[in-house]
Amino acid sequence: MNFRRGNSNDLEQLKELGVRSWIQFKEELADKHWNDLYKTLSNWETYADLLKISDCVICENNEKIIGMAFLVSKGNPTEIYDEKWCHLRFVSVDPEYRGNKIGEALTSMCIEIATENNEQTMALHTSEIMHSAKHIYQKLGFKIYKEIDQRLGIKYWLYTLELDEFKAKSRNQL
C-alpha cells in the first residue's frame, strides 16, 4: 500500500471509492436520505470542489485508490464548521481493505498536515451509525464539541481536536 497526495487526475477513482465505501450505510438510512447522500457521493463535482479547498490524502494498492481523506483548510466555513477551523471530510476506506488501519493512517496524516500548516483547531462530524470512525477519532484525541442538527435523519456530533494540545501530548509520549 502507498500513501500520497490526491489530485484532479484521481477524480473518477475518488468518486467510485466514495460510493463503494459509503454504500454500507444504505440499509441504515431511509430511502430519501440514502438517495440524497448517493447524489453527493456519485457526483464528481463533490470531489473536484473539495480538491480546490483541501489537501487530499489517498491510499493506493496497485494504483487503485482504496482510501481517501480531505483536509479542508481554515477560512472555508460551513453551517457546521467555524471559519477558524480546518476540517476533515470524507474519510473513506474500500470495504475490502477495512481493518488495516487505513482510516486511522489517513486521519493521522491529515493531523500532520494541519499541524504543518499551523492550524489551531481541527474539526469533523460523524454520526451514530459510523461506529468505526468514532472509535478512530476518539483514539486520536478528538472530543465531542456538541451534537448538531440531524443529517440524513440520524444523529450527528461535531468533534474537535486542539492541535497545540495534540502536539504537546505527542512530544510527551516520545
UniProtKB/TrEMBL annotation:
<dbReference type="Pfam" id="PF00583">
    <property type="entry name" value="Acetyltransf_1"/>
</dbReference>
<dbReference type="InterPro" id="IPR050769">
    <property type="entry name" value="NAT_camello-type"/>
</dbReference>
<keyword id="KW-0012">Acyltransferase</keyword>
<keyword id="KW-0808">Transferase</keyword>
<protein>
    <submittedName>
        <fullName>GNAT family N-acetyltransferase</fullName>
        <ecNumber>2.3.-.-</ecNumber>
    </submittedName>
</protein>
<feature type="domain" description="N-acetyltransferase">
    <location>
        <begin position="1"/>
        <end position="162"/>
    </location>
</feature>
<dbReference type="InterPro" id="IPR000182">
    <property type="entry name" value="GNAT_dom"/>
</dbReference>
<dbReference type="InterPro" id="IPR016181">
    <property type="entry name" value="Acyl_CoA_acyltransferase"/>
</dbReference>
<dbReference type="GO" id="GO:0016746">
    <property type="term" value="F:acyltransferase activity"/>
</dbReference>
